[in-house]
Amino acid sequence: MRTTILLDDRLAERMQAHARREGKSFSAFLADAGRKALESNEKANDDPFNLITFRGNGTVKGIELDKTNEVLAAEDLATYGENSP
Fold first, then answer.
1. Of 1, 15, 19, 81, which one is least surrounded by beta carbons within 10 A?
2. Residue 81 burial class via C-beta count within 10 angstroms: exposed 0-12, middle 13-18, buried 19 and up
C-alpha cells in the first residue's frame, strides 16, 4: 500500500540512518517498526492483571475497605505503632 506520512525532519533522518545501518529500505524499516509496536502492544494485553487485595487470612477485622482512611490508619499503626504520624 502506498501512503504519505509527515515526520519531524530530525526523526526522519535518524530513522533513515538506522535503516541504512541495518541494510533495509526506509519502507522496510517502517514496516518492521510498526510490526514490533503492534506485537509489543498485543503481548502487553495478553497478560492479565491480578489485583491482590489481601494477604494471609483476608482483611483485617473491623476495617471497611470502602473507608480508605481507616485502612491507611490501620496500616500506619501496624508499621509504626502507637506513635504513628
1. 1
2. exposed
* 38, burial (CB in 10 Å: exposed 0-12, middle 13-18, buried 19+): exposed
In angstroms and rounded to an integer, the radius of gyration of the C-alpha atoms of the chain is: 26
Domain range for 59 is: 51-85
Q: Are 71 and 63 in contact (CB under 8 A)?
A: yes
Let me know if 80 is exposed, middle or buried by CB neighbors in 10 A (0-12, 13-18, 19+): exposed
Residue 67 placed within a domain: yes
> Tell me: the pLDDT tens digits for 25-35?
999 999 999 99
Residue 16 is given by DSSP the state H
Q: Does 4 map to a domain?
A: no
- Using alpha carbons, select from 77, 74, 69 the residue that is nearest to residue 59: 74
Q: Is 70 part of a structural domain of the chain?
A: yes
0.70 surpassed by pTM: no
